Amino acid sequence: MSDWSDDLHAVLLQLNGYMNRPDLDQAFLARAGVKLDRALFPLLTRIGLSHPISVVELASLVGRDHSVVSRQAAKLVDLGLVDRLASEGDQRVRRLEPSAAGRRMLDQFAVTRRRFLSERLGDWTDDERSMLLGLLVRLAATIANFEKTEAVDESPNTARTGSSAEGTDTP
User: How do strand 82-86 and strand 53-54 relate by DSSP bridges?
Assistant: First the structure.
């Protein structure tokens, strides 16, 4: 017997799998007419959505090791797709932001993504697409709010409970 939450979890894992498949990323890059190392694609996309962003924040968002993301970010800088800026609060921290060339590439991604989704969801009504987006935005906000309320003080005397015992809380 399946509960609706089990079905939701399965669908979210399926969607996450699609978003993390190297072959689909490579096909998307080809469709966009962009030559870019497939491993750099999700990083550039996240930098485009969350800029300015530190390497540590970026590594957390993409679920990769900080040192790996740091090397990959350096490649994006070398390619001229990302600029590395000093943080206003801490001059030791460098923030990543798309360069003009990076923004042009992100614009190519947006055109390709819009075309792809229009093809796939072409038989959906405007109301259905709007409802889907609204519910996904609400789900994301609900999960983000849960993360904030479940965060606990990390002092040695504080007991870890709930998801923090799993090490999944966001500080």
Answer: unpaired
